[in-house]
Amino acid sequence: MSGVIQERRVEGKAKEILLKALALRSVEDIPKIQEDVTNKTIVILKVTPLAQKSLEELKSSVEQLYEFATSVGGDIARLGDERVVITPPGVKIWRGLQ
User: What does residue 85 show for φ and ψ, rounded to 5 degrees?
Assistant: First the structure.
């Protein structure tokens, strides 16, 4: 499962925010995800592939991504049982009335 909205550069405007859908298969995927978020990409991450391999690795990976997202001013939230969304700085996730 992989989908990408291609980046468009508009002359005189800031770089647009992109959206990617990726599958988290191992902890080795984390640096690329962090790079994407740093480069103004919203990442929708399917965590099922890693969950099927190791719940401990999944837990550790999500903790690393949480620490990263909050440290750069981004946001992270669960989307149902199988997905997590991670946003770049300046993009917050609406969580409804709390």
Answer: -115, 135
Q: Structural domain tally of the chain? A: 1
Return the CATH number at 83. Answer: 3.30.110.150
Does 97 map to a domain? no
- Cα separation, 87 vs 72, in Å, equals 10
- Show the domain range for 72: 13-87
Q: Alpha-carbon torsion 98, 83, 65, 34, what sign?
A: negative
Task: Indicate the pTM of the whole model.
Answer: 0.81
**Which pair of tokens denotes residue 25?**
């298969």
pLDDT digits (tens, 9 = 90+) for 27-41: 999 999 999 999 999
Confidence of residue 67 (pLDDT cuts 50, 70, 90): very high
Q: Give Cα separations from 20 to 10, 57, 74 (angstroms).
A: 20, 22, 15
Distance, in Å, from the CA atom of 31 to the CA atom of 34, rounded to the nearest integer, reads: 5
